[in-house]
Specification:
Number of strands: 5
Order of helices and strands: EEHHEEE
Number of helices: 2
Distance between the termini: 28 Å
């Protein structure tokens, strides 16, 4: 995994950028673990309680590839940002595609 570039904007907020080849679902769990100061294996509840990890991975895999996903999303030759927000493990999580084909994960403590 690529080391994230992390900026903390206030005590209850964290934003990290990751390479596009990382699984977004794993990246979300790792970001929550980092924010909580625990191992990713200790994060509870499972990501499945908040969102389908396979669908999350597929959505962001399609966003940088010019492909269409099974969800009917089409991306043309121009950069099309993708953003998704959901609540997980005590955080409002926002996952965004970045212009350089990376992924940004932002956490805001609830």
């Amino acid at each position: 995994m690529t080391d994230p570039i992390t900026t903390v904007t206030k005590p209850s907020s964290l934003s990290s950028e990751y390479a596009a080849n990382d699984h977004v679902s794993t990246t979300v769990v790792e970001a929550v673990a980092k924010a909580d100061g625990i191992s990713p294996l200790e994060v509870s509840p499972s990501l499945y309680t908040a969102i389908d990890p396979d669908a999350l991975d597929q959505l962001f895999a399609a966003s940088g590839s010019g492909a269409s996903s099974e969800f009917g999303l089409r991306f043309d030759d121009e950069w099309t940002p993708t953003e998704l927000s959901f609540t997980y493990a005590g955080y409002d999580v926002t996952v965004s595609s970045t212009r350089d084909d990376g992924i940004s994960v932002s956490l805001l403590e609830k």
